[in-house]
Amino acid sequence: MRIRKAIKGDKEAFSELYHQLYSDNENKKSGLIPIEQSYFKNILLIAEDNEEMIGFIWANFISFGFSRYGYVEDLYVKSEHRKKGIATSLISALKDKFKELNVEAVFITTEKENKEAINFFSKEGFNLCPGPWFYWAPSS
Questions:
Q1: What is the pTM of this model?
Q2: Domain boundaries along the sequence of the chain
Q3: Which superfamily, per CATH, for 2-136?
Q4: What CA–CA distance (Å, rounded) separates 24 from 39?
Q5: Using only C-alpha atoms, what is the Rg of the chain?
Q6: Strand ranges of the sheet holding 127-128, from the earlier edge strand across to the other edge
Q7: Which tens digit of pLDDT belongs to each residue from 19-62?
């Protein structure tokens, strides 16, 4: 397994995974996800095994004024590849990228009922904030 930066050629395979993530959303649109367009600096990391895309983490780097933040939009690993450390590897690679960008904090949201996600993000060094927010701040 390796983690790499997404490329335009990933659009079809990524779109398939993205639609799987939102499979229960009645309002979801079909088709390719425009991974090359983003209002913020887009960070999309792909996990693959034997050249098969098995997961991704999609985040944004937000810089305005003197503030520098990261926000994780989505983290997804195919169900048959879960519990193998892939999500941890994706989070770790993203933290490294955000450290390079000198962020002040990284935010993630999840449903308060999603205890598995809350436990996972806590284990990965994120701190629970009021509401559905998590944050992670690289140490100086």
A1: 0.71
A2: 2-136
A3: Gcn5-related N-acetyltransferase (GNAT) (3.40.630.30)
A4: 26
A5: 15
A6: 2-5, 41-49, 52-64, 67-77, 105-109, 133-136, 127-128
A7: 888 777 665 566 776 666 544 689 999 999 999 999 999 999 98
